[in-house]
Write a structure and sequence with these properties.
two-stranded antiparallel sheet, 12 helices, Rossmann fold, 7 strands
């Protein structure tokens, strides 16, 4: 693992930002302090961080209904994210997007998406734009195993393949499409096998190993930037919580849950950093404390932020061009 110390420590920090942010979100939601719906990213931190650590600010991502981790890994600010979940005017989308629709085009975050499989064609469109504009920007499309059964999966990947678009399709295979296990909704064991149909590389990696994710995405991004077209990377991982907060998860065997939690990504990576003598345990503890403090400050920022004004309800909904046509 020949990687720079700063990169390794930054990946640890980012995973902890996601873990601590999400842990507090689940608690705040249970207390009734956050409105709307929440899908936790707990347990899948290595996929987002390993992927986005390869990206530039000008690169794009399309996210999912379980998108908090993607946004943090891509550079999303905790204050604005927390405020958005609280529905406050200081949030990324002025409180109108909530948990499933956060976006920040300036960071290349084209939006979390509540529609399963909704990101494939958006990613292909972003990739086409980069190619036509002769930019070396890459788009990453995050999706789950269930979304790989949607028609948009075929449409988006096929188009990206035919036109050699700079898109990396990243499947976060957490083994369940809502409450249905993968073995019951797909005959194949590896979603990456489907890459053959599009004539592109398909790779399956341990999604709980942030270094393995980083290395596989690094190759796919390099291929995309050089004009060689898209890749399909499948990361096998597992969500610690239910499909949504409040889900009783009685469809998952307790033994299975405990086996996967024993392989959770942050503890594994922390152990590896200590074994490699990248840093002392005190340094990692200091990162944990700093991140915890940042998250608590983000909660305070959100709770002290104003609610959107009533007259803003229809603002930012239609473009000026549409409004001019209607007037």
């Amino acid at each position: 693992m020949e990687m720079e110390k700063d990169l390794l420590l930054n990946m640890y920090r980012k995973m902890q930002e996601i873990r601590i942010f999400e842990t507090r979100i689940t608690e705040l939601f249970a207390e009734g302090r956050i409105p709307g719906f929440v899908h936790s990213y707990l347990g899948e931190e290595a996929v987002a961080v390993g992927t986005c650590s390869n990206l530039k600010t000008t690169d794009y991502i399309t996210s999912t209904h379980r998108g908090h981790g993607h946004l943090i890994a891509k550079g999303g600010q905790l204050n604005e994210m927390m405020a958005e979940l609280y529905g406050k005017a200081t949030g990324y989308c002025k409180g109108k997007g909530g948990s499933m629709h956060i976006a920040d085009v300036d960071l290349g975050i084209l939006g979390a998406n509540g529609i399963v499989g909704g990101g494939f064609t958006i990613a292909a469109g972003a990739g086409l734009a980069s190619k036509l504009q002769k930019k070396d920007d890459v788009t990453v499309c995050f999706f789950g195993d269930g979304a790989s059964n949607q028609s948009t999966f075929h449409e988006g990947i096929n188009l990206a393949s035919v036109w050699d678009l700079p898109v990396v399709f990243v499947c976060e295979n957490n083994m369940y499409g809502i409450s249905l296990s993968q073995e019951k909704h797909q005959k194949i064991k590896d979603v990456s096998d489907r890459a053959v149909a599009y004539g592109i590389p398909g790779v399956t990696v341990d999604g709980n190993d942030v270094v393995a994710v980083y290395e596989s995405i690094k190759e796919a991004v390099k291929r995309a930037r050089s004009g060689e077209g898209p890749s399909l990377i499948e990361c096998k991982t597992y969500r610690h919580r239910g499909h949504f907060e409040g889900d009783p998860t009685n469809y998952r065997p307790d033994e299975e849950v405990q086996q996967w939690k024993a392989k959770e990504p942050i503890g594994r990576f922390r152990k590896k950093l200590l074994e490699m003598e990248i840093c002392k345990e005190e340094a990692l503890n200091a990162i944990d404390d700093e991140v915890t403090d940042q998250v608590e400050k983000a909660i305070k920022f959100a709770e002290e932020s104003p609610d959107p004004a009533v007259e803003e309800a229809v603002q930012d909904v239609y473009t000026d061009m549409v409004e001019e046509v209607w007037s």
